[in-house]
Design brief:
This protein is mostly beta strands. It has a single domain, classed as Hexapeptide repeat proteins (UDP N-Acetylglucosamine Acyltransferase, domain 1, 3 Solenoid). It has one helix and 20 strands. Strand 19 and strand 20 form a beta hairpin. The longest helix has 22 residues. The two termini are 17 Å apart.
Amino acid sequence: MKNIRSLNGKTPKIHPSAFIHETAVIVGDVVIDEHVSVWPYAVIRGDGQPIHIKAYANVQDHCMIHVSDVHPAIVEEYVTIGHRAIIHACHVKHNVIVGMGSTILDGAIIGEHSIVGANALVSPNKVFPPQSMIMGMPAVRTRELNANDITTIHENALHYAKMKEYYRD
C-alpha cells in the first residue's frame, strides 16, 4: 500500500492481525502491534522519534499521531483514540479512552485506566495519575474513575478489535 511509507531508512512495522484502512497514512519509525485498528484518514507519522501503538489499541477516523525531536509517541494496550484526536509526542498508558477532538501535547503522560474527555487540551509535560477523568482546556482531573468506568474502557477497545474484522472482510 502506497499510504505506508518508509522515511530516512525507517519502515513501519505492522502486525499481520492489525487493520489499516486504505485511506490511513503511516510513515517512518512506527510499530503497530497485534489487533490494532487504524481507521479512515488517520495519519501516523514517525519522522522524528518513534511511535509505538500496542495491542488492541484503535486509532479512529481523522486522528493524528506525531512525534517531536525529543519525545516519542507511545499508545499502550487497549487504548481508544476518538475521532479527530491529536496525540503529539506523549505517552498514553494502558486502558485509556482519548475523547473525540482531544489534544495531548509533548511530554504529557496519561495514567492507565483513564478517560480524556472530548475536546480536552492536555498541556505539555502534564502528568495525570491512574484512574483519572480528565476534562477541559487546559485539562484537569475532575474525579477518580470507578471499576465500572474501567471495565467500559476495556470493552470499548475490544469492540473496535471485533469491528475491524467486519472491515477486513
